[in-house]
Design goal:
six-stranded mixed β-sheet; 3 domains; 434 Repressor (Amino-terminal Domain); alpha/beta; six-stranded parallel β-sheet
């Protein structure tokens, strides 16, 4: 017990006597300090005293699919900061080999979390398993998802408007004279990719299937997809992520093609360092700051007992023109 008091006290920055008063339910401790001590117990993996176990922790799960794509650390920074301002402690859960999204949900439920924010995950894939989301719903755990959830899950969502993003990119490429525009998207059951494809088909009137390539969200995926599209004569590329766009640039160069002289590429996200690539990447920027703060506001409202409709808030993206797009090559 003495060691536990010392560890928790060091974590919170208070005296062992203060920790002892919290654990024993004694007066003379502010509510903020009390919550900080309880959160430290949860984070450090110590069991709460029996009389305090009925209280839900001030922990919020922040579940991300990966950290290699810079967009996810960017969301984590905004969401984590907004949670901390409300006195909530974010618990970062990033999928790794052998640890699934469902495993993290089980762990978060064991920790009696106050809520969960998902930013990218299986909820955006129609054919993926969704039982762990249903467990959260059954236990009435507040949940908010970022970017295009499956409708029947019934969670409030905060999304960037995929249709507007594609329209901005398409009109930009068309204004440069590109009439052979292709899309590099995620898997077929990926909801944001499906929305982007629907928007492109609406704009194009008729978009040949040969001008649409699917890939995993990585530079390598973009490279493989672009190799196929380049062989089909596509000169303008709209990509579902910045890493995919960088893969397209790499594929073009491997084939001896100039970007933007012969191939133009538009990414999606405007994640970190895209203005430092060669050439700097033209991309459609997600409003990460506004989206992240809105997600936390929706979650906090649920935590405080307010009813939040399971609706999707759509945020307007912004086209950022840099050096990876140029006039279409003359036939």
């Amino acid at each position: 017990m003495t060691r536990r008091l010392a560890v928790v006290a060091k974590k919170v920055g208070v005296s062992e006597a203060t920790v002892s008063r919290v654990l024993n339910g004694k007066p003379g401790v502010s509510e903020a300090t009390r919550q900080a001590v309880l959160s430290a117990l949860d984070v450090l993996g110590y069991e709460r005293p029996t009389q305090l176990r009925g209280e839900r922790a001030r922990l919020v799960g922040l579940v991300l699919p990966e950290l290699q794509n810079p967009i996810f650390p960017a969301f984590a920074e905004v969401i984590g900061g907004a949670l901390a301002q409300l006195g909530l402690t974010p618990v970062l859960c990033t999928q790794t080999r052998g640890v699934s999204e469902a495993d993290y949900v089980d762990l978060l439920l064991q920790q009696q979390v106050s809520g969960v924010v998902f930013a990218g995950g299986l909820y955006a894939q129609a054919d993926a398993p969704h039982d762990h989301y249903r467990r959260l719903a059954e236990r009435k755990i507040p949940v908010v998802v970022v970017n295009a959830a499956i409708e029947h899950l019934g969670f409030p969502a905060v999304s960037c408007d995929d249709a507007v993003a594609v329209e901005q990119a398409w009109r930009h490429l068309a204004s440069l004279g590109h009439d052979r525009i292709g899309l590099v998207l995620g898997p077929g059951d990926h909801v944001p990719s499906a929305r982007k494809l629907a928007a492109a088909r609406s704009l194009a009137g008729e978009l040949p299937d040969a001008h649409v390539a699917r890939a995993m969200f990585s530079i390598e995926g973009g490279h493989a997809a672009a190799t196929r599209l380049i062989e089909r004569g596509v000169t303008g590329y709209i990509c579902a992520s910045d890493p995919l766009a960088l893969g397209v640039v790499r594929a073009a160069r491997r084939k001896g093609l100039d970007v933007p002289g012969e191939i133009s590429v538009v990414g999606y996200d405007d994640s970190a360092l895209m203005n430092c690539t060669e050439p700097p990447l033209t991309t459609v920027r997600q409003p990460i700051e506004a989206m992240g703060k809105a997600a936390v506001e929706l979650l906090n409202a649920q935590i405080n007992g307010s009813t939040v409709a399971p609706e999707e808030l759509l945020f307007e993206p912004e086209l950022v023109v840099r050096g990876s797009t140029g006039q279409a090559p003359r036939s």
